[in-house]
Amino acid sequence: MPAYASLEELTEVSTNLLELEQKYPEAYKDFVQLFKSCRKVGYKNICKMLLGEATPKELKGLD
Length: 63
Hints:
By secondary structure, the chain is mostly helical. The chain contains four helices and no strands. Helix 1 (7-23) crosses helix 2. The relative contact order is 0.07. The N and C termini lie far apart (34 Å). It has one domain. The chain has helices at 7-23, 25-37, 43-50, 56-59.
C-alpha cells in the first residue's frame, strides 16, 4: 500500500530517524522493540499516548 505522504516528507522522516538512531542508539532500539511488541495496539494509538494526546481510558472511550 503506497504511503499518503510525499516522497520528500518520507525522506525527511527517514533522515530524522537515522539521526535519532545515531544520537541515541539504545533508546532508539528500545522504541523499535516497543513498537514491534505493541503492533496490535496500533501505531496511531501508541503515538497519541506518547504525545500526551490520549490516555488508555480515553482511547477506549471510558472517560
